Amino acid sequence: MHYISTRNPQHRVLLGEAIAQGIAPDGGLFVPESFPHFVPRQFDGEADLVAIAQHLIAPFAAGDALLTEELADICRAAFDFPAPLVEVPEAPAPLWVLELFHGPTAAFKDFGARFLAECLERIRRNAKRKLTILVATSGDTGGAVAAAFHNRPWVDVVILYPKGLVSQRQAQQLACWGGNVRTFAVHGTFDDCQRMVKEAFLDRALAETHQLSSANSINVGRLLPQMVYYAYAGLELWRRNGRRANFIIPAGNLGNSLAGIWARHCGLPIGEIVLSTNANPTVTEYLRTGEWEPRASVATLASAMDVGNPSNMERLRALHPDFEELQGQIGASSVDDIEIRATIRRDAHELGQVWCPHTATAAKVFRRLLARGTRGDWVVVSTAHPAKFNDIVEPQIGRTVEIPSSLERLLSLPRQEKELEPTLDALRADLQS
Ligand SMILES: *Cc1c(COP(=O)(O)O)cnc(C)c1O
Predict the structure, then answer these.
(1) Which residues line ligand 1 (CB under 6 A)?
(2) Which CB contacts under 8 angstroms, 24+ apart, belong to 372-375?
(3) Topology given in CATH for the domain delimited by 81-107+221-401
(4) Which residue's CA is minimally distant from atom 8 of ligand 1?
């Protein structure tokens, strides 16, 4: 299997190279040249994430001898925590929650980060230069990447996050590492952080001193493992109910959504895919009008989704170049902060479910779809544990949210970070000092 740049199919590499490069040399994003096709029966007898991951990802690694040989070990190491599919019996229509927050930093990004780390560890085994992973984060990516790469001697991690625009506990999770992890609180937005990373990759001076790689959801090594939990949940409900389940996915940079769309594209039993967004309108407006208009992000309660120029849209458009076809493939609906608060409050009382603010957008969209008469089996994709956003959630539900033990440990560590102006010059100066 080859990966090609969204901007030029002449850039054609195998999986290991696509992961190592992160972004294509022309600034495009790597996408599979073609997709494998599965039927659900091929997964018979495979009931856990590790087994499904090995089977599903194998064709995506084809041709890459090292990753093919190591794939079983990589999957065992990366998928060492579950993604429970939990039924919500109190819901007014068939509803499940796909809980993606049981990893070390309590958000779905642990899946991608851990798989990427395991791949890179093997790809870099004989490398002479140390790798520097540069990551812009709107809150959860940085923590997941730091957790996945911390204390691996072949790599340094540099995290850029927008100061003051992530939750207290997220900020703590970004800055508690030290060692091979450097954390910068940038005076700017997530879009500034993301722009700085993109510029850094194209910067010649930095290329001389640092071997840079990305760990953002632009890295295909994060997208592939995210397909696995969609396959798992889709197969689980297909086996139980004989129907394709529909998914509502909280969307920001569209990495999680794209993985679901790719999984369906490969033939996994997945029905409708609806993206839930916060008040940032780029995606919903695009799907309504066909006009792609990136804009500055606005701050919302679902801060990990505060993205004004979602980079993975480029991959989605590469998959469906025809706008009307793309429009037929996904729905999208936006949820504002007032609705996020109200949904957290209401569903805690009526469904006994405590959502993080991101997951609440999906739960709200579920209610909206029901009100419009939608039927079928629905899965709300729960992207983070509500304890990460206790400052938002607890006032709504009127009690404290219990903290998972992994998160509790990170919260007790000292903070180590530096502030940074939102420019490439400032970043370069700091990295080269
Ligand atoms: C990153 C994140 C999202 C958005 O995911 P994308 O892949 O950027 O669309 C949603 N919820 C949480 C909790 C996140 O951390």
Answers:
(1) 107, 109, 139-140, 217, 250-257, 304-305, 356, 358, 383-384
(2) 375/93
(3) Rossmann fold (3.40.50)
(4) 253
